[in-house]
From TrEMBL:
Keywords: Amino-acid biosynthesis, NAD, Oxidoreductase, Serine biosynthesis. It comes from Planococcus salinus. This is D-3-phosphoglycerate dehydrogenase. The chain holds residues 1 to 312 of 528 of the full protein. Its EC number is 1.1.1.95. Belongs to the D-isomer specific 2-hydroxyacid dehydrogenase family. The keyword Ribosomal protein does not apply. It catalyses: (R)-2-hydroxyglutarate + NAD(+) = 2-oxoglutarate + NADH + H(+); (2R)-3-phosphoglycerate + NAD(+) = 3-phosphooxypyruvate + NADH + H(+). Pathway: Amino-acid biosynthesis; L-serine biosynthesis; L-serine from 3-phospho-D-glycerate: step 1/3. GO terms for biological process: L-serine biosynthetic process.
Length: 312
C-alpha cells in the first residue's frame, strides 16, 4: 500500500527522515504553491505537512477527499481550520516541544536588542554613521519583566530573564501560586502584570480570547516607557494601538517577530525607529526545524501505518 504525503512548506530534510525511511510513503514536496494551486493539487493525498505559511482553510480541506492527517511542524495551529478538519474526521498533529528553546532564545535576543538598540545602531553604522549618542540603552538587571502566558515558551523565557537578574511577574489563567513560587517569580492578574512591568512579553496562543489582548486599554494601564516583545503570534497585540502607543511615547520600544498579516504587507510600524523586528524567525534554527519535522513525521508515519499518534 502506498500513502501519498504532500509537504507544502519548507521542512528540514534531516527532520523528515522518519518519512523517507518508512515503507510505502510517496513524498511530494511542493513549497511554492498558491492557495488556488494547492486546492487543485490536494486531492488524493493522505497526509499534508505544513509550517505556518500554508493556510489550511475549509476550502482546502473540502477539496481533500482522501486526507487523513495534517501535520503542523511547529506549535501554533491557528493556520489550520480545526473545525473543518474535525468535521471531516481528519486528525491534526503538531510538534509542541520541538521549538520551545529556540523561541525562548529568540525572545531574549529580541529583548536585549530592544534594550540596547542594537539593530538601530548597526543600521546607522552600516550607513557609515558613527553615532554613540542616539543609542543609549537601558539595563535589564533589576527591571521587571511581565510574562503574559506562562506555558512552555513563557516559562523558558522567565527562567532566562531571571538569569539576567530581572524580576519576573507572570499572568496565565492556569498559573498557580505553587508553580510561581517554585520558579521564583511573582504572579498576578493581567492588569497587575501590565501595570508592574518595565518589559512585557506575550506567549499565549492566538485564540478568539487572546486576539488583541494587548489593545488601547491595555497600553493605557502600562508604565510610561514600557517596552514590549511579541514572539508568539501577530494579532495578540493590536498593531494600530501599538503604533499609536509608540508615537505618543507611552511605549518606548517594541520587538516583533510576528505580525497580524504574514508575509507582512503593511510596513508602517517599521517606519518607527523604536521598533525592531524579524520575519517570524523564532523557530528558525537548525535544531528546532529538525526537531519539529521529526516529531510530525513520526506521527504521520505512525498514524498512517498503525492508526495511532502520540499527540493530536
Ligand atoms: P503553550 O501552549 O505551551 O503556552 C501557552 C500558554 O498561554 C498556556 O500556559 C496558556 O494557559 C496560556 N494562555 C492561554 N490563554 C491565555 C490568556 N488569555 N492570557 C494569558 N495566558 C493565556 O504554547 P507555547 O509553546 O509556549 O507557545 C506560545 C506561543 O508562541 C504560541 O502562540 C505559539 O504559536 C508561538 N510560537 C511562536 C514561534 C515563533 O516562531 N515566533 C515559535 C514557537 C511558538
Ligand atoms: C510555531 O508556532 O511553531 C512557530 O510560529 C514556528 C513556525 O511557524 O513554524
Amino acid at each position: 500500500m502506498t500513502f501519498h504525503i504532500l509537504i507544502s512548506d519548507p521542512l528540514s530534510e534531516d527532520g523528515i527522515y522518519p518519512l523517507r525511511q518508512a515503507e510505502g510513503m510517496n513524498i511530494v514536496m511542493e513549497t511554492n504553491l498558491t492557495p488556488e494551486q494547492l486546492e487543485n493539487r490536494i486531492d488524493g493525498f493522505d497526509a499534508l505537512l505544513v509550517r505556518s505559511q500554508t493556510q489550511v482553510t475549509r476550502g482546502l480541506i473540502e477539496r481533500a477527499s482522501n486526507l487523513k492527517i495534517i501535520g503542523r511542524a511547529g506549535v501554533g495551529v491557528d493556520n489550520i481550520d480545526l473545525e473543518a478538519a474535525t468535521e471531516k474526521g481528519i486528525i491534526v498533529v503538531n510538534a509542541p516541544d520541538g521549538n520551545t528553546n529556540s523561541a525562548a532564545e529568540h525572545t531574549i535576543a529580541m529583548m536585549m536588542s530592544l534594550a540596547r538598540k542594537i539593530p538601530q545602531a548597526f543600521h546607522a553604522l552600516r550607513n557609515q554613521n558613527w553615532d554613540r549618542k542616539s543609542y543609549v540603552g537601558v539595563e535589564l538587571k533589576n527591571k521587571t519583566l511581565g510574562v503574559v502566558g506562562l506555558g512552555r515558551i513563557g516559562a523558558e523565557v522567565a527562567v532566562r530573564a531571571k538569569g539576567q537578574r530581572m524580576n519576573v511577574i507572570a499572568y496565565d489563567p492556569f498559573l498557580t501560586a505553587e508553580k510561581a513560587e517554585k520558579m521564583g517569580i511573582g504572579y498576578g492578574t493581567i492588569e497587575e502584570v501590565l501595570k508592574a512591568a518595565d518589559f512585557i512579553t506575550v506567549h499565549t496562543p492566538l485564540l478568539k480570547e487572546t486576539h488583541h489582548l494587548i489593545d488601547k486599554q491595555a497600553f493605557e494601564i502600562m508604565k510610561d516607557g514600557v517596552q514590549i516583545i511579541n514572539c508568539a503570534r501577530g494579532g495578540i497585540i493590536d498593531e494600530n494601538a501599538l503604533y499609536e502607543a509608540v508615537k505618543s511615547k507611552k511605549v518606548a520600544g517594541a520587538a516583533l517577530d510576528v505580525f497580524e498579516q504574514e508575509p507582512m504587507i503593511d510596513f508602517r510600524l517599521l517606519e518607527l525607529p523604536e521598533i525592531v523586528a524579524t520575519p517570524h524567525l523564532g523557530a528558525s534554527t537548525v535544531e528546532a526545524q529538525e526537531s519539529v519535522a521529526v516529531d510530525v513525521s513520526m506521527d504521520v508515519v505512525s498514524f498512517l501505518t498503525t492508526g495511532t499518534v502520540r499527540n493530536s
